[in-house]
Amino acid sequence: MRWPQLLAALRLPLAGLAASLLLASLAVVWSLRHLSQARQRDDAAQAQVASSRDLLERQAGALKLARDYLPVWQNWQARGLMGGYGRLDWLQAAQNADKAAGLYGFGYQVEPAKPAPQGIADGVNLDATVMKLKLPLLVESDLDRFFSALQAQPVGLARIKRCSLQRTGPLPPPPLNRPGLMADCELVWYTIDLKTRTQP
Question: Judging by DSSP bridges, how do beta strands 114-115 and 107-110 pair with one another?
């Protein structure tokens, strides 16, 4: 058989083979494309799962932290430390301490609250309110008894800023129930500022 006749005879089978190869190639390309898309969807799903797991772990940590510190928070709230301005409560506490120590009343002045200096409590914004007291005393130890009684009051958090004593009566032994000393003291009452402050 001559070459022209052979080629004529093979033309149809070759055309069929070429069509088959083309279809096979298209099928491979389609499969690869869909495989790539499936891998992308799988990667996206895995990333979503990892993100959700990380979120759950963070929420679980926050929940544990809240549970651990809830009693502390409730105690602070009960003592009046959580924001606000507890002037009346502080005055009542000072009056109770004065009575418990068996003293003779006091004069006072309460200044407006101001932001406390940074570094007193790391990560916590505090307000500081200065209370000035003038306490008549019989003897020096009366002052210790007053502050011990004040510390025992279930209200607020106070720290002594300064105190000075001045004699106003005769030298000891003093007359009965006649105070001969005057204590001039400044206390600082702290409260937690729940508002977000703008950093300088």
Answer: unpaired
